[in-house]
Amino acid sequence: MADDAPVGGFAGRLGATLQESDDGSATLTFQAADEHLNPAGTLHGGVVATLVDTVMGQAVRTTTGDGEVPATSQLTVTYLRPGRPGPLEVRGRVRTRGEHLTICEADVEQDGRAVAHAVATFALLER
């Protein structure tokens, strides 16, 4: 997929940009701004959850056939340190792809430091 491709859905409305997506992996970038912060002044956990869910879904889509649609059935996000305004890199990868379920992982980094780690299960639905 081309660099700097727009991301659809909610993550796209937040401003996430798809950098690459191929062979069971994907990378997003995101510019955190004041509007993405919680009352404590750090990056809102819901924004982080949206980003990891989106990048893992994109990674799964690189492995699916025409009639398959990935749907998140479980998502666990471990927040490792507070995010701040500024650029984030979000990387997702397929760990195990089964016939009906796929397991993925994602990492969020800011300034070379881990912000969050996530694990998700995606159900593969037929259109």
Distance between the first and last residues' Cα: 23 Å
CATH H-level homologous superfamily name: Hotdog Thioesterase
Query: Could you name the CATH topology?
Result: Thiol Ester Dehydrase, Chain A
Number of helices: 2
* Reported CATH architecture: Roll
Extract low-pLDDT stretches. Answer: none
Percent in strands? over 45%
In which order are the strands of the major sheet placed?
Answer: 1-2-3-5-6-7-4
Q: Whole-number average pLDDT?
A: 94
Beta strands, count: 7
By CATH reckoning, the class would read Alpha Beta
Run of helices and strands: EHEEHEEEE
Structure description:
With 127 residues, this protein is an alpha+beta fold. The chain has one domain: Thiol Ester Dehydrase, Chain A (Roll), CATH 3.10.129.10. Helices cover 18% and strands 50% of the residues. The chain is built from two helices and seven strands. Strands 1-2-3-5-6-7-4 form a seven-stranded antiparallel sheet, covered by helices on one side. The radius of gyration is 14 Å and the shape is globular. The two termini are 23 Å apart. The mean pLDDT is 94.
Write a brief caption for the model.
It is an enzyme of class 3 (hydrolase). The protein is of the alpha+beta class.
Please outline the helices and strands.
Blueprint lengths: L4 E2 L2 H6 L2 E6 L2 E8 L12 H17 L6 E12 L6 E12 L3 E10 L2 E14 L1
Protein name: PaaI family thioesterase
Pfam family, one: 4HBT
InterPro entries: ACOT13 (IPR039298), HotDog_dom_sf (IPR029069), PAAI_dom (IPR003736), Thioestr_dom (IPR006683)
List key phrases describing it.
18% helix; alpha+beta; single chain; 50% strand; Thiol Ester Dehydrase, Chain A; 7 strands
